[in-house]
């Protein structure tokens, strides 16, 4: 178990992504994935109110609804649920009134009295940050949200949020959710991790497996014939440099009798301030690899090998 920032949330160090629920996983498949995750020791579920509004016929909130129905059916103990606000078609942006309405709608769909971890999904610079911070603080004060977090915010805006929180007495964020993995390191390592270290924030990275590329499934830039709707996003990484990373992951994984995906997740968990990478599964058969990634401990020399093969040049160098 690992603690999320300065919160009282102790979670298994791998978060199950709910972005596929109501998209590539229907209700029954989603229930099976959630069952396998919890039976295997997982207890941290990540979703957003906008999942999956991009699917024809969907209107947003499908993932939360499925998770809520699963929670009501299974009544699991000790499960931590994170969700987000700002992108639902009916609740766009981060004005105070919108944040309140969106949170209440999420609670109804999830069937919860309070959201364990509530993220500002994307920054909304059209709204004064003081208003947004105050809105999140009011949700905590009223018992609708237990912990505040931010996603896709720059380091500068995170600092500004924290400064406003300190001056206004609003609880500080406990987590930040950035795009971070072995093929996408630069910005997070240069700017976000230093802020997280300074203020005790836990990182909960998304795209932890680079849309599936870091499972080793995509070894060509040609996505044609791939069944997954995310194939194009994954295949773009199948360059000479990207495939060297996959080869190294495979070698290290073989030494531990585990998968490329689990090894990639283990590398991410070993990075400073990272609490629990987010990874999703469309079928229960994909869940064991994710759980293995939450348990595998890589040796220092293995981490260094992966650091070296995925090395990047810092901005301005």
What does this molecule look like?
- The model has no long low-confidence stretch (mean pLDDT 95).
- The N and C termini lie far apart (38 Å).
- This protein has one domain: TIM Barrel, CATH 3.20.20.
- It has eleven helices and twelve strands.
- A hairpin with a 6-residue loop joins strand 1 and strand 2 (10-11).
- With 317 residues, it is an alpha/beta fold.
- It is 41% helix and 11% strand.
Instruction: Give the strand content.
Output: 5-15%
* CATH level-4 homologous superfamily: NADP-dependent oxidoreductase domain
Main structural class: alpha/beta
* Poorly predicted sequence stretches spanning 5 or more consecutive residues: none
Helix and strand string, N-terminal first?
EEEHEHEEEHEHEHEHEHHHEHH
Short description:
The chain is an alpha/beta fold and 317 residues long. The chain contains eleven helices and twelve strands. It has a single domain (2-210, 261-298), classed as TIM Barrel, CATH 3.20.20.
Index terms:
eight-stranded parallel beta sheet; TIM Barrel; 12 strands; two-stranded antiparallel sheet; alpha/beta; 11% strand; 317 residues; single chain; 11 helices
Topology diagram in text:
Elements: E1 2-3, E2 10-11, E3 15-17, H1 27-39, E4 44-46, H2 62-74, E5 80-85, E6 87-88, E7 91-92, H3 96-110, E8 117-120, H4 129-141, E9 148-151, H5 155-168, E10 175-177, H6 186-199, E11 202-203, H7 231-235, H8 240-255, H9 260-269, E12 278-279, H10 287-293, H11 300-309
Parallel strand pairs: 3-4, 3-12, 4-5, 5-8, 8-9, 9-10, 10-11
Antiparallel strand pairs: 1-2, 6-7
Helix pairs in contact: 2-3, 3-4, 4-5, 5-6, 8-9, 8-11, 9-10
